[in-house]
Model the fold of this input.
Amino acid sequence: MPELPEVETTLQGVKPFITNHRVKKIYVRQSSLRWSVPVELPSLLEGLKFQRLTRRGKYLLFENGLGTMLIHLGMSGSLRIVKEGELPGKHDHVDICFDEGHILRFKDPRRFGCVLWQSKNQDTHPLLINLGPEPLDEGFGGMHLFLASRKRSVSIKSFIMNSKIVVGVGNIYANEALFLAGINPKISAGKISLKRYEKLAFSIQSVLEEAINAGGTTLRDFTGGDGNPGYFRQSLNVYGRSGEKCKSCRKPLCEIRLAQRSTVYCKKCQR
Done:
């Protein structure tokens, strides 16, 4: 699944081709995604411009004077800018055509993504209203995690992957952040001190910023908005490296399952 850095990379890739460009036509070839694409979407948006493109968690937000179009990439979705006349593939479900001949093309083989519309304040949308803080915003830090974790017995890895606690920390970056912070992913969230949470918050921010700067993580199903894959995978310390040597202590990395997700960590470096 594309995680926060991949979504941010996609946003920055498509933004210059969309912001303040007029929508000429919208083609919906497959409306049955995770939730149905609104039938009124073409009539609402054709002839208008998106003045602002932002991200909230893993949701891409395209805003104009009438409201906000929400796009989520799901498990295997991607957004690309293609030129007018480029024929769509089997899984290219939605095309948004802009002036100057650019098309925003939404591809989603597994159809777990979505293209939705919110005419009111976007923050009140059911998919957004309960989201926690953005990990790269100033308001996020160790104190937030510490206070939210009191009396919580859930594992620290599951805790930081909970979007109500903090958004955008998916499986890859949870593994990486916990390694950088030296925290065993199995420890109960409520047993971690404020000092260790401060280190963890810094590690979350560091690994996400590094991944964004590198263009996201290269996964089988992900390509950036420019059609090129990201390159952060070259820098991964633990994710996908089960049995390989820890880059710090050279001991073999261990793999377990936590909340049905692959979890790789170093028994010596992470306590």
In short: The chain has two domains: 4-124, 142-265. DSSP finds six helices and ten strands in the chain.
